[in-house]
Each structure stands twice: as structure tokens, then as C-alpha cells.
């Protein structure tokens, strides 16, 4: 099966639809599948549930889909950098399922591993546990959390080959490997597309078996959320 597609539109063709659940990799603006997100914007798909650590920032990444009102619900762990995200949530326009960050990561990992649910101490006795099963193990209580699986997972990788084997670079690795395994269909945008066999098997982070489509996106913009510079030293 040919996995490499020539454009973002071709990579998304025949897959997107209203009401879908989509996982989007990245942390803040680091490692986000920005080209694929913009492809979703152009597709016009609406009423989406998006699983992502956060929703980018205003005008960048998932922030673009918030601006077009294409997202109905976010399953996230962080709101802070996006004013529109906060405004839509507080006004009741956007549904939000808040997760502790580690719980979100484990829910995604569990979904990819075929684990329907697990127990964790995180959130016991708080709003996080409301409506969920709480069970005692030993002397402590644990809350049950369910695994997450998406209709489509969108990930960004530094390098990939025609079989879909992926390598992530440094902190851009973040949520991407877990989400790649937890999508019924996984689409990867890669900065460097190399011939099959060019990646050392010991360097592969996501095996190609998890990846359905790949699009080459060279030289993507690397955004910085909060640029902090120290004062210039006086001479």
C-alpha cells in the first residue's frame, strides 16, 4: 500500500468528516502537525472532538480551528496560552474534558496498547473523580480512567521513510509516539522523507505498522510561544 502522499490535501482525502475524534500531537507549539491542522481547516470538517495536550495559541495550530468554530470539544490538560480557548470554554461554547497531564498521556498510551481502562491515584477526592469509579487497592483509593482512541491521529516527525517508520527530534517527540499508536488511521507529516532502509532500526520511535499515510513538509516554521531574552550586556 502506498503511504506517501504528495500534498496535505491528498493525505487527508477521503478520511475527514463531521463529528470525528482527532488526536493532534505536540506540546504547546513544539512538534505540532501544523500543516495537517491547516488541512483540516481547509476541509471544513466541523463538530470535531480534538484530543491534544492544549490547543496551540491564538492563530497558530489548533487555535486556527477554534477560530473557525470547527471544534466542539477538547480533551486536554492545559488551556493557559490560548485566550480564545479560555473564552469559548467559559462561555459554554466549547465543551472541555480536563485531564491531569500524566493521566492524559496514560489514557492515550493505554488506548494505543488496547487497554480499555486503568486505575490511578491522581485526582482521587477532587472534581476529576466525579462520576468515575473509585476502587481501593491496599490502603489507598484509585480512580478509574478509560483509554483514548481516535478516528484519526495527526503527528509530526523529524524524519520518516516510505514505510512510515518515524523518528522524532528531542522535545518534539512529546505526545506524538503515543498518539501515532492510538489512532484508527494515523497520518504523519515529516520534515525529512528518506528512502526505505535509510533509518537505523534502533533509531525508529514509531514503527511503520502504526502509520497509514505520510506527507513531506520540509522546512516547517518553528514557532516560539514565549520568547525570553536576557538584557544585552553593556560594553
Question: What can you tell me about this protein's structure?
Answer:
By secondary structure, the protein is an alpha/beta fold. The chain has a single domain, classed as Glutaconate Coenzyme A-transferase, CATH 3.40.1080. Strands 1, 2, 3, 4, 5, 9, 10, 11 and 12 form a 9-stranded mixed beta sheet that branches. The chain is 20% helix and 28% strand. The termini are far apart. The chain is built from 6 helices and 12 strands.
Distance between the termini: 62 Å
Specify the overall morphology.
globular
Helix content: 10-25%
- Under CATH, the topology can be stated as Glutaconate Coenzyme A-transferase
Mean pLDDT over all positions: 94
From N to C, what is the helix and strand string? EHEHEHEHEHEEEEEHEE
Query: Which secondary-structure class do the elements indicate?
Result: alpha/beta
- Strand % is 25-35%
Number of helical segments with 4 or more residues: 6
Beta strands, count:
12
CA-atom Rg in angstroms: 19 Å
CATH superfamily: Glutaconate Coenzyme A-transferase
Largest sheet: 9 strands, mixed
How many domains in all?
1
Which CATH architecture would you pick? Answer: 3-Layer(aba) Sandwich
Supply the CATH class.
Alpha Beta
Low-confidence stretches: none
What's the SSE blueprint?
Elements: E1 4-5, H1 8-12, E2 21-24, H2 34-43, E3 48-51, H3 62-67, E4 71-76, H4 83-90, E5 95-98, H5 101-113, E6 117-120, E7 134-137, E8 140-146, E9 150-161, E10 166-167, H6 176-181, E11 183-194, E12 213-216
Parallel strand pairs: 1-12, 2-3, 2-9, 3-4, 4-5, 9-11, 11-12
Antiparallel strand pairs: 6-8, 7-8, 9-10
Amino acid at each position: 500500500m502506498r503511504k506517501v502522499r504528495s500534498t496535505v490535501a491528498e493525505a487527508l482525502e477521503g478520511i475527514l468528516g463531521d463529528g470525528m475524534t482527532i488526536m493532534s500531537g505536540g506540546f504547546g507549539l513544539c512538534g505540532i502537525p501544523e500543516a495537517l491542522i491547516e488541512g483540516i481547516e481547509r476541509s471544513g470538517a466541523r463538530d470535531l472532538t480534538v484530543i491534544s495536550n492544549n490547543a496551540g495559541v491564538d492563530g497558530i495550530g489548533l487555535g486556527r480551528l477554534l477560530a473557525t468554530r470547527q471544534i466542539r470539544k477538547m480533551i486536554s490538560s492545559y488551556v493557559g496560552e490560548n485566550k480564545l480557548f479560555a473564552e469559548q470554554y467559559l462561555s459554554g461554547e466549547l465543551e472541555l474534558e480536563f485531564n491531569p497531564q500524566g493521566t492524559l498521556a496514560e489514557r492515550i498510551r493505554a488506548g494505543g496498547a488496547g487497554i480499555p481502562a486503568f486505575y490511578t491515584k491522581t485526582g482521587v477526592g477532587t472534581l476529576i473523580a466525579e462520576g468515575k469509579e473509585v476502587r481501593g487497592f491496599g490502603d489507598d483509593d484509585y480512580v478509574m480512567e478509560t483509554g483514548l482512541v481516535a478516528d484519526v491521529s495527526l503527528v509530526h516527525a523529524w524524519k520518516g521513510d516510505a514505510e512510515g517508520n518515524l523518528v522524532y527530534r528531542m522535545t518534539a517527540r512529546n505526545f506524538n509516539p503515543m498518539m501515532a499508536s492510538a489512532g484508527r488511521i494515523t497520518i504523519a507529516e515529516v520534515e525529512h522523507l528518506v528512502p526505505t532502509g535509510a533509518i537505523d532500526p534502533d533509531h525508529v520511535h514509531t514503527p511503520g505498522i502504526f502509520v497509514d499515510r505520510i506527507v513531506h513538509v520540509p522546512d516547517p516554521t518553528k514557532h516560539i510561544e514565549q520568547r525570553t531574552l536576557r538584557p544585552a550586556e553593556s560594553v
